[in-house]
Structures are given as structure tokens and as C-alpha cells.
Amino acid sequence: MTNKEIAKTFQFLGSIMELHGENPYKIRSYQNAYLTLRKLPESLREMTDEQIGKIKGVGNAISAKIRELLDTGDLQTLQKYRDQTPEGVQEMLQIKGFGPKKIRVIWKDLGAETIGELLYAVNENRLVELKGFGAKTQEDLRKKLEYFQKSRNQFHYASLEAEAERLLDAFSQILKPARVAYTGALHRQNPILTHIELITDAQGDLESAVADLLGEGNWTDRQIWEGSSSEGLPLRIVRVPADDWVSAQFEHSATSEFLHSFQAKLPADQWGSVESEEDLFTKAGLAYIPPALRESEDWIERGVIPQLVQEEDIKGVVHAHSTYSYGLNSLREMAEASRSLGYEYLGITDHSKAAFYANGLQVERVYQQMEEIDQLNTEWTDFKIFKGIECDILNDGSLDYDEEVLQAFDFIIASVHTNLRMDEEKATSRIIKAVENPYTTILGHPTGRLLLSRPGYPLDHQRVIDACAARGVAIELNANPYRLDLDWHWIDYALGKGVLISVNPDAHSIGGIKDIHFGILAAQKGGLTAETCLNAKNTNDFTTWIEKKKNNH
Q: C-alpha distances in angstroms, 166 versus 183, 191, 208, 209, 309?
């Protein structure tokens, strides 16, 4: 089990115990374990019991449970509560923003034991009379339930990538010299996936290889295998003839809308035998369109394809947290990790004072951090730390510090973290006011969404982007794989307005820096180039840009 999987097990244990009204102290200890373990940079699998026991907040009882999870993959304590809880009620615990106490009322007083039963009761207006509920709460729950149902059986790209890489490597080794590759939505780098999909031109050995690696599954006309990986993740394997490899891979990697438009240029019966996908596009009279852009007909109609931004183009880590606020690692550790990964600079952006839940920086601690940054910057000639802040956008759209403090920062990421339930007009006006603040440099995760958990802030994206363009404010593509916000669909519109995009990891630990990888995959789908990416600028150019923005307010 990974650290995150272990952490989530403790989170679920705390929730299901709260559902049953158990000891609040124990519940809190498991919830704290979740918060600690999910950000732990070292792998628990590689730690000794003694090392695990020294983790802050991990006592003997939790340490023993961690070892039990590592050895068996399960907890007897958790299984005890699962046995007492209907499966549908356990599923309710997965719904973001729907806590155990309310679920207990639903279960015990209303008698609803499945998501379907609960949604039916909501639609019949049966929750308004329950303790702790009302018309507004009922309507909010209805939206959460509908979103949960819509998101079922879907996965973040990041949650499938490691297993996809393992399977690709395993099949490539076993099936040599046959070819094996990603295809489908996985190949198009979609942030949300329903399954892993591989394509191969292996023939006679494929059935036995699949059986050895994966066990049972279903073959469809001996061309498609559908089943699960050893990790229980949905998997699809497509077999194609070796002499049809290029055209088959192309066909399986594109959406039907893209294929329809492509075939208007070159019908499928004229594809013939080609050596590469590039040759196929040339035959159609088109520039090569990489898989990430094969979602719709847009890029076929344009004809000119940009040179997409690459991970190695990113020169600086912008948007990162340290132990000054909600981060796991010290400022020095975050800087040294960024430098060791080959980046030229770090834009540290701890939370502002309104984020009390994240130990946001009161004014005196802002200046304390700035002094430490000045000291660290004397140690390196090839690396720089910029003084930033992730400044909360307050309810009225103002920023979370007085002007005297705001002007002390090198740059400011303005983000919404609270009151996400405004209607579109109020939410949009709130964001635009923050964008129009002369000290705002970058608009952070514009909608506040959490993919598959929370749809996010309702916004008029065009108005927000237009405001950023008018004020010279960049927009963040938050690279955390659970956010990827700004959504890639809006990158093209932003670029058309001259707005720069900053691919930011929102790193709360050393390991989080590497989330830039997922941000780049999403950025490529939106057509982002190195020239239009803010943190693809080198240290000097980034300095020039933020100083110009600051001086022009």
C-alpha cells in the first residue's frame, strides 16, 4: 500500500467510527494520522517500526495499525465496523461534504441505506423534517448526490498512471518484439479516466501472457480483452494486426469527433499502409497533431499546431508551501529539493492569515519568513527563492492583507478557499475584484474544484479571463492531479486573450513538487507552449515579468 492509501484507510476508519458514535479522541487521532501520512515524503514501506513510531502524531496504537496495513492490506478494527454497516451507508461516507453525523441521521431515522434510496428521499422532500436538515441543506445534498453518481467508476489520471506504466513495461518485456503502447483516453492524457487501455500487435502469445499476468477476463472476438489489473483497476487490451499498427493506434487514440473530421480530409479506405502517424497526417494534408489534442475537430480546422510545452521547459516551482503554514517540509528543504530537481527558482507561497485552518501567516511571521528567504538567497548563485504568498480572496473580493504588507511580496497568488457556495454572478464578481487588485499577480485555482469530489466554484470563465487579460494577471493551472484547475478547455481562450498560464504544483511537501508532471499533461491538452507558460521563463525573465506587473499597478 502507498502512503496515500494508508492515510485514506485511517480517514475512513475515523469516519466510520464517528458514524457509530465512538470515542471522539480515537476518531481525532485517526483523522490526524490521515493528515500526517498523506504528506509524508518517505515511503512507509521502506521504514522500520522504530522510524514509523517517531513520526509526529503517530503513537504505538497507530504505528501497529500501519504495520498491520503494510503486512496484510487491511485492518481488523476497520473490518469490524464494516461488518456492522450497510455497504450503501459506507458509500455515503465517500461523498465530499456529507459528514458521518448527518449520515447517521439518514441511516437511523430515515432508514435510507443506499445512495439511490437517499436521492429518492431527497426528491420527495423527506429530509427537511430531520434534525440538522432543512430545505437548503437538502438541496445542497441533492447536488452532491448527483455529482457523486456521475463521478462513479472514474479515476484520476494520477491514480492509474503508475499501474499503467507497470503493465506497459511488463507486457513489452514478455511480448518482444511485438509492440505495446498506451491508447484511448489514457494516450490523450485525459485528467479523468474510466480504465487503463493498451494496444498491441502481439498475436499467438498474447492470450497466455494476459492469463499469466492478469488471470481471468473477457475476450471479445479475440481482439479485445477486458478485465482488471492485479491492483483491481479496470483494464482494456486491444489487439491489432502488425501490418495495421499505425492506422489502428491512430484510430483508437482519437475521439469519434476527431476521427470524423479527419476522415473528411482522408477517408479510412485511403489510409493504406504508412510507416508512422506523421506520414498519415501528411497524406491527409495536415500538420501532425499529437494525441493530447485529438479530442475535437478544432485543431484539424486550424491547421497550425503549436509546439507544446514540455516538462523540461519548466524553470521554476511556483506555488509551494512550507512548515510556515500547512506544508510538511521547511523552507530550506523545499528550496533544496527544487534546486536538486534542476529548477532555477522557487516561489514560496504559504497561506495568508485568514487561512487559520492552515496556520496562515500573521504579519509578523510574514516578515520572519522574508528574513529567512534573504538569508537563504545568499547561499546560492544558481538558485533563487521569491517571496510570494497564497493570499485568500475574502468574501467581498478583497485580499487578506493591508497594502503595506501586500507590497512587500515579490508576487501574490490570489485564491478562494472559503464560501464556495456563491451563485455564479456573486462568485464571478468576487474573483474579478480580486483580479483587479493591483497587487494580484496570479489567479490561483480559479474554481477551487476537486476532481471527482467537488465541482467547484461557479464562474463566468470568459469574464474572469477577460479581467485577467485587462490587468496583466496570469492564471494558474494548479498541477495537483485532484485539481488541474484552470480546466484545460479554457487554456486556448486565455491564450487568445494574451493571458499567461503558470503550471503550479501547489506543493505541500517535497514530493508534491513532482505534480508539475500532471499539470504539464493537462496543459498540453489545452495547447500551452513554453512561450505562453509563465514559469517556463528563466530566473531573469520571471523577475522582469513580476517586477513589471508590480511596478505598473
A: 15, 19, 18, 14, 26
Q: Are 197 and 185 in contact (CB under 8 A)?
A: yes
What tens digit of pLDDT does each residue of 362-374 get?
Answer: 999 999 999 999 9
| Mutual angle of helices 516-525 and 157-174, in 10-degree steps | 90
How would you write 530-551 as a 3-class SS string?
CCCEHHHCCHHHHHHHHHHHHH
How far apart, in whole angstroms, are the C-alpha atoms of residue 99 and residue 64?
Answer: 27
3 state SS of 455: coil
pLDDT for residue 536 is more than 90: yes
Q: Output the nine-digit C-alpha cell for 122.
A: 431527497
Among the residues of 96-228, which ranges form H helices? 100-105, 115-123, 135-151, 157-174, 184-187, 206-214
Evaluate whether 252 touches 291 at the Cβ level (below 8 Å).
no
Buried b (16+ CB within 10 A) or exposed e, 367-406: eebbebbeebeeeeeebbbbbbbbbbbbeebebbbeeebb
Cα(279)–Cα(423) distance, integer angstroms: 50
As a whole number of Å, the CA-based R_g of the chain is 25
Whole-angstrom CA distances from 410 to 189, 433, 441, 505, 531 are 34, 20, 9, 19, 22
Question: What is the helix (H) or strand (E) element at residue 50, kind and residue range?
Answer: helix 49-53
- In 3D space, the residue among 88, 82, 34 whose CA is nearest the CA of residue 62 turns out to be 34
Q: Residue 34 is which amino acid?
A: Y
Residues 23-36 as b/e (b if ≥16 CB within 10 A, e otherwise) read: eeebbebbbbbbeb
CA distance 535 to 545: 10
Q: What is the pLDDT of residues 53-97, one digit of tens each?
A: 888 878 888 999 999 999 998 999 999 999 999 999 999 998 888
Q: Check pLDDT > 90 for residue 150.
A: no
Asked, as a colleague might, if the bond just before 267 is cis with ω within 30 of 0, I would say: no
